[in-house]
Design a protein that fits this description.
3 strands, alpha+beta, 3-stranded mixed sheet, 3 helices
Length: 117
């Protein structure tokens, strides 16, 4: 399988999953989230969707749990959208990179303030 096709499929999955979760998934446990990345394996049988969830640990856990339970709905919608022979299995994983980046930025700003003061 070409890497270019993998990237195209991953991009379409990211676009459609984001739209489906935002507009059609009506689970109150799902908080504010961003799909950071989608990685599809070489034979297009599995797609790992990396999400960043805003909120405290309880809200993050509830959101990830709700996404896990809704993965069948997401997979079916993506399959209808993509119209490829085999729809990849969906796995949601939490990505903490945005949180880490925000924390690092806060540390840098506090150090800059200390230098000024």
């Amino acid at each position: 399988m070409s890497q270019r096709r993998q990237q195209r499929v991953a991009g379409e999955i990211k676009r459609r999953a984001s739209q489906f979760i935002r507009e059609e998934l009506k689970d109150p446990r799902i908080g504010f989230l961003t799909i950071v990345d989608v990685v599809v394996n070489a034979d297009l049988t599995q797609a790992v969707i990396y999400v960043s969830v805003l909120g405290d640990e309880t809200e993050q856990r509830d959101t990830m749990e709700a996404l896990g339970r809704a993965k069948g709905l997401v997979k079916r919608d993506i399959g209808d959208w993509l119209r490829i022979r085999t729809t990849p299995d969906i796995v949601f994983k939490q990505d903490h990179s945005i949180e880490r980046g925000t924390r690092i930025l806060q540390i840098i700003r506090s150090l800059e303030r200390e230098e000024e003061g």
